[in-house]
Amino acid sequence: MIETTSQIDEYRSALINHPLYNAMNSIDAIQRFMETHVFAVWDFMSLLKRLQLDLTCASIPWTPVGNPVTRRLINEIVFGEESDVDQNGNATSHFELYIKAMEDIGADTSAIKSFIQQLEQGETWEKAIVNSGASQAAKQFVQQTMDCVENDPIHVVAGVFTYGREDLIPDMFISIVRELSEKGHSGANTLVYYLERHIEIDGDEHGPMALQMIDELCEGDPMKKEEATLGAKRALKSRIELWDAIANQI
After folding, report:
1. Cis status, amide bond into 61, omega within 30 of 0
2. pLDDT digit string (tens) for 46-67?
3. How confident is the model at residue 1 (pLDDT cuts 50, 70, 90)?
4. Which of 16, 82, 162, 193 makes an SS bond possible with 210, Cβ 3.0 to 4.6 Å?
């Protein structure tokens, strides 16, 4: 199994205890956070789709591809992320739910909507992100993630996916948002739902399954394990840099 090195643990601790969270004690600060963080919510889906394409059958004619445990993990996460429900029981993806949370709380959605619209019109992600109006921090984060999605071997993608996921948002931030909601900031309600739903869907079961997936993909090869570990470190370092940039902006 991929080594949970002290450096990975150090990066994860730095993220969970990042000073950014203490700075997000107002609606305005949370708006600024969401305007950049939404691009990380988007590119997570590209990581997931790369795993789905490589580790399950997404072509015709269908054949049973790979390890059924890994197949189940990927398809469960795709279902939860792409086909969940909102507070009213309406079908939605977590990305679309996040956009709704941004709108409700008054965050600017123009950059992310421009980006998605350009993609829908057939533009490359490289040109779309440059022309979207996204912050420089968001552009750099997306570029690093998409470079991994498009160019890295699947065991490295799995390492990035497993260790750079949204469980890195600590309970403290959820408490801050919930407190704002309880103080009458009704716009925060959807964000509270998104955060709580993300944790609920992710669940304790997916973590061990994801580690098993990496173990299977590395095939006992020390070089592959090292590559997956390095990919995880890069992803965590990239997230820290994103958090640093948002904290400086706030």
Report:
1. yes
2. 999 999 999 999 899 999 998 8
3. very low
4. 162
Distance CA 216, CA 208 (A): 12
pLDDT, residue 14, reads 87
Beta bridge partners of 84: 92
Mean pLDDT lowest for which of 24-33, 51-60, 174-183, 203-212?
Answer: 203-212
Assess contact for 40 and 238: CB atoms under 8 A.
no
Query: Hey, what are 125's tokens?
Result: 């992600």
